Amino acid sequence: MEPAASMFESWTVQLRPVVYSTDPELFRQLCGVAAGDPDVAQLMPIRVVGRRNFVSQLVARLDASSRLRPGISHEDATAILLALTRFATFDQVHAVADARLLG
What we know:
The protein is mostly helical. Helices cover 82% and strands 0% of the residues.
């Protein structure tokens, strides 16, 4: 399989927003509880570490196959992809899309 196709397949399986879209309210509540409950807040970084590791590997593969945008560092590409795959980003984009549909 071509590296780009393999990366896309990995991306769609590991990071697609389907997980968030199955129950957005649950994720909103989880984030809210984590903000006020130190025990729950301690669990949230575990998800971030897993996502960060996957994104970092994806960026390394992009770089190795010369598909990383010239001039962008591994760290910057990782940060951008992490921002794009956060629940808060999904939720905001979803809210805008819903507003357009209802508008």
